[in-house]
Amino acid sequence: MKYFHIIIATAIILAMFGCNSPEENGRKSQVILEMKRATDFHSYSHPEEAVVTHLNWNASVNFDDRIIRATAIYDIDASDDAERILLDCVDLKIEAVTVDGESVDWSMGPEQPFIGQPLSIPVNGNSQRISIQYASAPSAGALLWVEGEQPFLFTQSQAILARTWIPCQDSPGIRFTYEAHVDVPVGTMALMSATNPTQQSEDGHYDFRMDQPIPSYLMALAVGNVEFRAVGPHTGVYAVPELIDASEYEFGEMENLLVAAENLYGKYAWERYDLLVLPAAFPFGGMENPRLTFATPTIIAGDRSLVSLVAHELAHSWSGNLVTNSTWDDFWLNEGFTVYFEQRIMEAVYGREISEMLATLSYQGLVDEVDEIMDTNPDDTHLKLHLQNRNPDDGMTAIAYDKGYFFLRLIEETVGRDGFDKFLKAYFTEHAFTVMDTDQFIAYLKENLLNSEELLTAVNMDAWIFGAGLPANCPQVRSERIESVDANLIAWETGTMATEDLPWKEWVYQERYRFLSNLNDATPAERMKELDATWNISTTGNNEVLFAWLEQSIRSKYAPSYARLETFLINVGRRKFLTPLYRAMVETEQKEMALSIYEQARQNYHSVATGTMDELLAVD
CA-to-CA distance for 81 and 78, rounded, in angstroms? Predict the structure, then answer.
């Protein structure tokens, strides 16, 4: 197989890291060329025949009809015997296609669930450039057009939604550079996962460049009336005017996080790290789009207590963006590494006490999710997933994130932190701007770290990667502060501690969350009323604490919280919050309330969220 796209990526890597000797260049090129690329069942692309290497995207964003009209011009590398290049498409209106400036007869293949249709364009071994004129559909799955006095557009391309707004080879194993030229309504700013403006243009035209090769799921676009504030030499925030002051304060320590990350695993490779606060309809906490993290406003708490999410998205600049899972079956290689890295950043900046509380909460969530998945499909608790013929979104569970984290933490505890840090830094450097699959990683791990039978036995990789559930050697997390919360909870539930004697004011958010999330499902509404009357929990500005409170309110049928619940669900589209809250209503025989709220809220949610909620609530 020819890795033409990887060769281009390698040239960029060599320039970035200053590897100028022919011998060094040749060695690195050979390493990349010999990498095994796993079959990607979620893309029609056949890169061994023809592959994209660079995108020149010219687009116009129209809010009135909710359509992006664009021309995607790709530089390609084709094998000598190439007859076609295949791109992934979902609901795109293809208007014209050329190859090296000449019109050609293209075709669309039959549609398949989850992955859409293949766009087949005839090429040969001498073909160098294809151009596709097209328009997106108003219902494009990646796009959310937020209505209101200040309209807003944002994309969410992960896992395989880039193909709904750009015809592309939509596989994480294929990387390309890009430039873009985008026209938007005057009075709005366009931003992408690329070099970005800091001021609105007078004519609504914006130009972008991304010189580092990225996979298509990291293509991102946002359009809205936003402002920019620098918070450090290499960091800044974008937000709508009414949130810019709060955002500047909340994320004012981003430069510290970036410095801590570089001190751990090497120089940041993307030049700037900025953050865009999106509307609350954003379905995730954050998305690690290179140079510009997309973030939910639900992490603005007023006290910087939820910045672990920023640490997580920043960590993706190494694990995921720099070294990428080759297919979605290998998703844990992105997320497990990122959670581990996130914890290390948080420890470096805020101390071991905070990071261990976060790890304790992660373990609690992981155990709960493992128990739930084991009841339905134990194979989905493997780190190495099996997502053929399924939506790769099914793999975005706590398994990839937290089971992956505890596996890596086990390795650290087995070999020692110094040795593991040296290994990880070399791993990110040697594989920068390339892809990695599970088998490759196992081989690399055995060769460079777990290189004895004693170490392999202690870790038991097969049980973690290919086995169900949590292995017996899962690391134990201990947090004295969390243990104190648990003791207070027992005392409160058994009546030996009065509500007013709880140290609620002294607790940080992790402690408050632990208390609320571990309340007995049968906690009477009267006791919930006591908590609320004493500590005003329902008015908290911390959305993690509020979420835990609202979920318990549903299970306790504490009706005074239902107005806040309805407002929260109508205005917040973060799937992490939506799924447990709607599920709690279903499980407590309050489905009518769930359906009533959902009817009002659904139009405000991204397709990533509505897909999950429709299934949960059995909505057609």
Answer: 8
* CA atoms of 595 and 601, how far apart (whole Å): 10
97: burial class by Cβ within 10 Å (0-12, 13-18, 19+)? buried
Q: Which of 313, 356, 369, 412 is an active site residue?
A: 313
Angle of CA points 235, 294, 255, to nearest 5°: 20
CB atoms within 10 A of CB 594: 21
% of the chain with per-residue pLDDT over 90: 93
For 167-192, write each residue's pLDDT tens digit: 999 999 999 999 999 999 999 999 99
Q: Which of 3-17, 239-253, 511-525 has the lowest mean pLDDT?
A: 3-17
Count CA atoms closer than 13 A to 121's CA, side-chain side. Answer: 34
Nearest CA to 264 out of 354, 344, 324 is that of: 344
pLDDT digits (tens, 9 = 90+) for 397-411: 999 999 999 999 999
Inter-residue contact 435 to 173 (CB < 8 Å): yes
Bridge partners of residue 232, in order along the sequence = 235
Helices 562-571 and 575-587 meet at what angle, rounded to 10? 140
Answer whether 584's CB lies under 8 Å from 551's CB: yes
Closest to 310 measured CA to CA, from 297, 293, 298: 293
What is the band of 362 on the pLDDT scale with cuts at 50, 70, 90?
Answer: very high
Cα distance between residue 107 and residue 122, in whole Å: 9
Picking from 56, 98, 54, the residue whose alpha carbon sits closest to that of residue 76 is: 54
Which residues, 6 or more positions from 267, have their beta carbon under 8 angstroms from its beta carbon? none
Alpha helices per DSSP H over 434-524: 438-448, 453-459, 461-465, 480-493, 509-517
Beta strands in 217-268 (DSSP E): 221-224, 227-232, 235-239
What is the DSSP secondary structure assignment for residue 589, as one 8-state letter? T
Confidence of residue 428 (pLDDT cuts 50, 70, 90): very high
427 given a catalytic annotation: no
The per-residue pLDDT for 53 is 96
* Residue 391: partners with Cβ closer than 8 Å, 6 or more residues away: 114, 611
Residue tagged active-site, from 401, 509, 513, 582: 401
48 catalytic per annotation? no
Buried b (16+ CB within 10 A) or exposed e, 119-147: bbbbbeeebeebbbbbbbbeebbbbbbbe
CB neighbourhood size of 328 (10 A):
28
Amino acid at 504: W
Question: In terms of C-beta distances under 8 Å and separation of at least 24 residues, what long-range contacts does 347-353 make, across chains too?
Answer: 348/260, 348/263, 348/264, 349/253, 349/256, 349/257, 349/260, 349/311, 353/479, 353/481
